């Protein structure tokens, strides 16, 4: 594999980010935004496997995020074990949900699949909101004070930042390997045309289902990291529709079905969100919806391929002009 | 016998699009399916390809009953098909399109790529390997579809109007390609409504009209069959009369 300067610079910047902002007066704020950003990139990258590569636009990934957020806190509240120990169970629960949702709804295509996933996610949210075991509408809490390092409770956001960054690197590495494998080609073929893919021997339903399970398990990891960092989850922050929509928007903004699209999307959207939240305070939360709506409009109208494709097109245009200039000069 | 389709029927609601079509294909043959528009040849073709389940009859391929099998199972057993309207994977490169086919028998990426390059060489698409499929015109897309399905190493290749919409010189090149594929030992069933193409390619034709097979045999005999002439010309006559009736 050729070492490309873009990704190397990007990773270097992400690794050095806490050092760069440590000089600022509001370092804790920037560090927290950084951790939120990386977490959003993990969720969007996980969504990208089934929503981007396979083109199955799920708007119900909050279920998997919610499973990831609730299960670690549930095992803590039941048995006092560290939330971290609940992560494998959370992934398993998410995978079971993926099978239960995928088997019937992958017979639907396009918008119908998206709508089915929204409906199931809202149903799950309502059930959780009324389930005493899961804290009903109030939510669940993690350990109040750390009993050891394994509780992963830190005062600063920097340790979380680096844990999240490590997980993001794993998710991107998995996606990278996937992209080059038979499975990855099959996912893209399904996105491009199911009927043609089937005619070439692609087992469409099975491939979609496996992608959905993998995506769900990784999304659950994002959810678990969220609830471990915040130490609290409620139906809105865990399974609310905004959780699903944010993953879709971030991936689509950067470029769905590309390796770095979700990370690029998070790099743009999360700082924007934090800026509006600080500028407008509590009243800014409504603004999030306006930003999402605006992004959807712009993407649908001008650039369905997202920022990565826009960048590639601009570069091709500039390079084209340069080479033409060179020919003119000669 | 490579393919045995016995009394295959397909109804859409109350409409019987295909009624008891029977076709046997020996290994190494080129068989043409012809007939006017709406005659049922595409329906029959899609039943054999596994895209439509027949509502009656039986299809046996290479000794395996595939009547109810899904399309991907047909591909696995060695039935390859192209689409009337090319269904290439637009955002993927031409090489990647063909690799999707090659992955059926070659699970490792490197092997699939080697197989795809071999097929691109056979079909004359090597030079465009890194271009996206969307950059191709209709003839290129039809050629890419053939390349993609050839990468699955089919025993039986079903071509659905692979030559329609091409200029005469493109048709010539496509005919050469079909011959080259046939020479590698692939059995071919081709749907076409341009008679000339069938006459030059097929050793045997099956004529469809209004959902039924009305004639079968070597092309020269079939074209002089009164039933076939009526099926084709009757159509034209009706149309001419209809046009005259308009004020």
What do these coordinates show?
The complex is a heterodimer of chains A (330) and B (247). Chain A has 330 residues and is mainly α. Chain A has 14 helices and two strands. Chain A has a two-stranded antiparallel sheet with strand order 1-2. Chain A has one domain (26-304): ABC transporter involved in vitamin B12 uptake, BtuC (Orthogonal Bundle). The mean pLDDT of chain A is 89. In chain A, α6 (158-180) packs across α7. With 247 residues, chain B is of the alpha/beta class. Chain B has a single domain, classed as P-loop containing nucleotide triphosphate hydrolases (Rossmann fold, 3-Layer(aba) Sandwich). Chain B has nine helices and ten strands. A six-stranded mixed beta sheet of chain B has the order 6-7-8-3-9-10, with helices on both faces. In chain B, strands 2-1-4-5 form a four-stranded antiparallel beta sheet, covered by helices on one side. In chain B, α3 runs parallel beside α5 (138-150) and α4 (109-123) packs across α5. The longest helix of chain B is centred in the C-terminal third of the chain and has 20 residues, at 226-245. The A-B interface holds A 180-182, 185-186, 188-189, 192-193, 195-204 and B 49, 51, 70-72, 74-76, 80-81, 83, 87-92, 96, 99-101, 103-104, 107-109, 112, 148-149, 152.
């Amino acid at each position: 594999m050729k070492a490309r300067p873009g990704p190397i610079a990007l990773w270097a910047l992400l690794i050095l980010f806490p050092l760069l902002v440590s000089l600022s007066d509001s370092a804790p704020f920037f560090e927290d935004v950084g951790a939120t950003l990386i977490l959003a990139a993990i969720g969007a990258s996980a969504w990208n496997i089934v929503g981007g590569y396979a083109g199955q636009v799920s708007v119900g990934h909050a279920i998997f995020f919610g499973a990831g957020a609730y299960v670690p806190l549930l095992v803590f509240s039941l048995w006092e074990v560290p939330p971290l120990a609940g992560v494998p169970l959370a992934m398993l629960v998410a995978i079971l949900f993926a099978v239960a949702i995928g088997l019937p709804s992958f017979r639907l295509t396009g918008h119908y699949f998206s709508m089915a996933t929204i409906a199931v996610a809202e149903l799950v949210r309502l059930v959780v909101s009324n389930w005493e075991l899961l804290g009903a509408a109030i939510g669940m809490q993690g350990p109040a004070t750390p009993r050891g390092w394994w509780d992963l409770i830190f005062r600063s956001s920097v340790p979380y930042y680096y844990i999240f960054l490590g997980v993001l690197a794993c998710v991107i590495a998995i996606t990278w390997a996937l992209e080059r494998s038979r499975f990855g080609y099959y996912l893209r073929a399904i996105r491009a045309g199911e009927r043609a893919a089937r005619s070439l021997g692609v087992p469409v339903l099975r491939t979609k289902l496996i992608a959905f399970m993998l995506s769900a398990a990784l999304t659950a990891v994002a959810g678990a990291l969220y609830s471990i960092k915040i130490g609290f989850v409620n139906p809105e922050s865990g399974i609310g529709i905004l959780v699903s929509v944010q993953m879709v928007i971030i991936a689509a903004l950067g470029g769905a079905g590309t390796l770095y699209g979700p990370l690029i999307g998070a790099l743009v959207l999360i700082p924007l969100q934090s800026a509006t939240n600080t500028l407008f305070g509590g009243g800014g939360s409504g603004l999030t919806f306006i930003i999402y709506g605006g992004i959807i409009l712009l993407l649908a109208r001008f650039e369905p391929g997202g920022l990565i494709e826009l960048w590639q097109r601009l570069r091709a245009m500039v390079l084209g002009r340069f080479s033409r200039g060179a020919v003119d000069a000669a | 016998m490579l393919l045995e389709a016995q009394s295959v029927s397909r109804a859409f609601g109350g409409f019987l699009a295909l009624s008891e079509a029977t076709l046997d294909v020996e290994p190494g043959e080129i068989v043409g399916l012809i007939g006017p528009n709406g005659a049922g040849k595409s329906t029959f073709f899609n039943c054999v390809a596994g895209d439509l389940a027949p509502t009656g009859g039986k299809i046996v391929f290479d000794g395996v009953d595939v009547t109810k099998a899904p399309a991907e199972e047909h591909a696995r057993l060695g039935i390859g098909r192209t689409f009337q309207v090319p269904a290439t994977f637009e955002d993927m490169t031409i090489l990647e399109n063909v690799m999707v086919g090659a992955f059926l028998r070659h699970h490792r990426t490197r092997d699939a790529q080697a197989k795809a390059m071999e097929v691109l060489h056979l079909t004359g698409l090597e030079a465009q390997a890194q271009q996206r499929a969307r950059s191709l015109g209709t003839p290129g897309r039809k050629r890419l579809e053939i390349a993609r399905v050839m990468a699955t190493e089919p025993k039986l290749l079903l071509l659905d109007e692979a030559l329609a919409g091409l200029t005469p010189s493109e048709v010539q090149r496509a005919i050469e390609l079909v011959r080259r594929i046939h020479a590698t030992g692939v059995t071919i069933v081709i749907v076409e409504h341009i008679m000339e193409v069938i006459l030059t390619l097929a050793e045997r034709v099956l004529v469809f009209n209004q959902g039924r097979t009305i004639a079968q045999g070597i092309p020269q005999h079939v074209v002089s069959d009164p039933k076939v002439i009526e099926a084709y010309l009757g159509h034209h006559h009706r149309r001419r009369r209809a046009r005259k009736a308009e004020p």
